[in-house]
Amino acid sequence: MFAHAVNQVAIAAGKDDSLPTLTGVHIEIKQNKITLAATDRYRLAVRELNWQAKNSEIEVSTLVRARTLADAAKSLTAHSQVTVALSPVGSNERLIGFLSELKTMTSRTLDGSFPPFKHLLPADSIAEATIEVGPLLDSVRRVALVTDKTVPLRLIFASNSLQLEAGAGEEAQATEELEIIYTGEPISIAFNPQYLTDGLQAIGTSYVQINFTGASKPAVLTGKHELNGTRDTSYQYLLMPMRYSA
Asked: Looking at CB atoms within 10 Å, which of 3, 18, 64, 208 has the fewest?
């Protein structure tokens, strides 16, 4: 569970070492809950999971390089449990440790403060779509083939249908349409296709629910195990829209 949570979040961490704070995963421990978060300013991934704290009143946070955390998680998956340990507050050594039955790993944590992020996850939405992840991923990949990874992929949501479009003018163009469950006003929005693909792959459920607060505002992806089931908000993937020429 820990390794999966790390992988879900680490995809959103920045790659630019000139902004070291954004290359990390923020780890917030509050009593028996751990919240992991990462952002590169264009997307934000947040995952909550429960753990058994040695001190049930503990409240502490730290920042760990995403690559380091992902490597640690990967190396620990062969074991049934992992113990996470932090240096005491005020210690000269800012360290984090991961202990399994046969392996111990220690790493320095990053300096700096992770930007506030919880207020970015909207409580309300003006529209929402529920879509089967597999067909949506396939459509995104096919339509995005006509452009490079940085050109916006347009998604037009209306009356239980989703139209995906890429390319314009004299460029190569592609369109596909999917049947979906949709409530709310029609919305036309564009995303970086690679970032959208990353989020859909990380969801880990059969269905995705996308909540919108506007065509020019971030959308939030969460998972659903069943079409008419409740959404699983333990993992949220916020994606910034891109501008595109009509």
From this structure: 18
Residue 207, classified by CB atoms within 10 Å of its CB into exposed (0-12), middle (13-18) or buried (19+), is: buried
Hey, CA dihedral for 43, 6, 47, 201, is it positive or negative?
Answer: positive
Classify residue 19: in a domain, yes or no. yes
Q: Are residues 131 and 233 in the same domain?
A: yes
Contact between residue 79 and residue 103 where contact means Cβ atoms under 8 Å apart: yes
Q: What is residue 91's predicted lDDT score, i.e. its pLDDT?
A: 80
Same domain, 141 and 97: no
Q: pLDDT tens for residues 193-212?
A: 999 999 999 999 999 999 99
Residue 37's domain is classified under what CATH number? 3.10.150.10
Contact between 212 and 184 under an 8 Å Cβ cutoff? The reply is: yes
Residue 120, domain member (yes or no) = no
Beta partners for residue 108, in sequence order: 95
Q: How confident is the model at residue 170 (pLDDT cuts 50, 70, 90)?
A: low
Res. 57: pLDDT tops 80 = yes
Residue 73 · residue 7 · CB < 8 Å? yes
Q: How far apart are CA 26 and CA 61, in angstroms?
A: 7
